[in-house]
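INFO  loader      accepted 1 record
INFO  loader      residues=195
INFO  predictor   begin
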Amino acid sequence: MRAITQSILALAILTPTAAVAMPRAFYSDGSGATAQVRQSIELCTAAEAQAEQQRRATIKRGLALAEAALAEREADARAQFALFCHLARRAELEGVSVGAVATVARMEAAVDRALELEPRYLDALIGKGLLLIELPWVLGGDEDRGEELLRWAVALDADFAPARERLAIFLEEEGRLDEMPEAVRRAGQTADSSA
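INFO  predictor   done
INFO  writer      dumping tokens
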């Protein structure tokens, strides 16, 4: 379970500004995340650098914030993503257990609902793609569909670094880095030269 959640959470962990700011969620009603949801996502990102005991408390608090936000407005893609993020963090800490199957099902339901609400939500596309790539097929894993979602996130915005990075890592691990779309290579080179 640890390898799964590390890969799934790469979006929030390796590039925390993407998960915290989340400027790329396409809300049909134009609304932004509530303070409760923003705080929950910030806590999920912050948990990575914390010691285990503090991390457990942070995850518990962030999960409570996400669940409270969803109780107020279930149709909130960012709150669904916050729930997904904290469940993945908790699964990372708890490791493989009998409850892991239920946790994975709940994680998948949250990220699926986020994408149902906002099909172009880049963070959720990446999270779902990585979940499908990392899960064994008996738990619903589908590497081909996961790759499709990563490619779709890149196609939506080649400048969005987390999408480029996760697709590149996946293709490299598969020995297929030469399949990286040219637009992504150019965007990555532009970003590297401006840094």
